[in-house]
Amino acid sequence: MKIVATHSFRGGSGKTFIALNIAAASARAGFKTIVMDCDFVSPSFQSNIQVKSSQKNSGNDFLLGKCKETEVISQTTIPNLNVIFGDPKPVLGQGLLEPVEETHWKALQRFSQLRESLEKQGYQRFILDTSPNLSYNSASALTVADSIVLVHRPVIHSLDLAIYILQTIYTTLKKSLKPRSFYLIFNQVPHGSPEEVKKLLENLTIEIQKHIEIKVLDSIPLDLEMDFWNSLLILEDSQTHNKIINMTKKIF
Hints:
By secondary structure, this protein is an alpha/beta fold. 37% of the residues lie in helices and 20% in strands. The protein has helices at 15-28, 59-63, 101-120, 136-144, 159-175, 194-209, 239-251; strands spanning 2-7, 33-38, 51-53, 74-76, 81-84, 125-130, 147-152, 181-189, 215-221. A 9-stranded mixed sheet has the order 3-4-5-2-6-1-7-8-9, sandwiched between helices. It starts with a strand and ends with a helix. The mean pLDDT is 87.
């Protein structure tokens, strides 16, 4: 089983959109897939995935040792796709939002147990949607991942933060014994002349690749109508859907 984590430097970049649609594309391609909401500060899966059967326990409960891994897996309406929800009512300073190193070390160990259990259950792909920026929670999810997909809005003012995180956790992960692949997706790309957009993405890619070896998968244009959708899952006959399918093939 391969684990892929989506990450971003700022909230609102669309990493949850990417995670859910990569998971859906994998499931529709016939792979037994599970996706987990690891954005414990602001979980959003509940409003974006329809389920046939739902567990009362969250992924938080499992990582804190309050339940078994089989008690957090919910079945979605998409064949081959199951989901682990985050706690819909997180409390700052409690549980996985508690800044205690021991709590997060135990959670990391539980992640390893979860991986073993999912592999035994026949899952082939496991997607983790992490918290943005740098935190204990995002670090744990990135640590267990085999591949990391960085979702970045192509705006200049966010580049400094991006470079800082690349120089800290990403570089550290790159040097670890566990081999990982790093991918970059430009999301919410502003509309403009093709030449201007191409130049913008090329310049950002050059700056990011100065700090880490990372492969650019593709870019997804800004879609203002997305705010009015009832779900982040895209239509199967859309151009963006075809991009997601191609990116998913490259990641896995």
